[in-house]
């Protein structure tokens, strides 16, 4: 399966799931999803479905108790007040969906409010709702999350742990000889380029160009970009590709997925998350390190080396530089440190 095929297949799976779940929502939701199709990804729309299931389930429990979700009409939606939306946000702190008891933090609440706003705004702009009451509801205040990332010694230790397997359980150590070259390449690539986990999983052998140490990634939204890597990353990738060439069990296909599972299929996002967690727990057990935290580690290091937030935003694929600022607290920390001695409290008298 080529890189393009991988993303096409992922989109088709999302579309199938959306179609399946739409039957659980009010019929008018089909118009909404059709209306936002050209400006949203399939993953965004799938998340919309999940959020709206919870919203309409709430309405049936608290406001339209004699109705099923699929019986709710646009006239019913017009009767939903801003107070109802505020009650919904409060409800999300501790609620049941099916047999599960769930709880949303402030960011999850903000996302669900954004989804509900999109729905109301769509039908209000179409003239099918008299008023958009969601516009009157304030977004939950989002507190800054502690930025978790690896420091210098931890970065090298993580790569060394992936290479040597020191500290692994006896069960995990049994698999390590089979995966250590692959795992080292994955960890090195994440730390050395800051690519997203979805971008890494979608890479093919043919995505890599060693003549100028570059590779092609498919970014969020489907756009492709060329990124560059260091000689350290090139060495790790070359070792893994050489191992694959010597393994007769690797499927002979072109294009070929770059990173393979033990079953010789394209590695999954979950598998990459698990292997990063496995090695990181050995290196820094008090930090919850994920592939995204490795991305933050790279972004912070890149900013410290360049001092240019626009370069960091471009390399990481952020459309808005404010997203970069928000994610990399070290940028603010370094600015504060740089001006610490700027104001002099005591001045020597001119002689």
Question: Helix count?
Answer: 15
CATH architecture classification name of the largest domain: Orthogonal Bundle
Radius of gyration: 25 Å
**Annotation, overall tally of beta strands:** 5
> In what order do the strands lie side by side in the largest sheet?
3-4-5
For the sheet with most strands, the description reads: 3 strands, antiparallel
N-to-C span = 77 Å
CATH H level, superfamily name of the largest domain: Intergrase catalytic core
Globally, the shape reads: globular
Helix content: 55-70%
CATH class of the largest domain: Mainly Alpha
Strand residues, percent: 5-15%
Number of domains: 2
Low-confidence stretches: none
Structural class: mainly alpha
CATH topology of the largest domain: hpI Integrase, Chain A
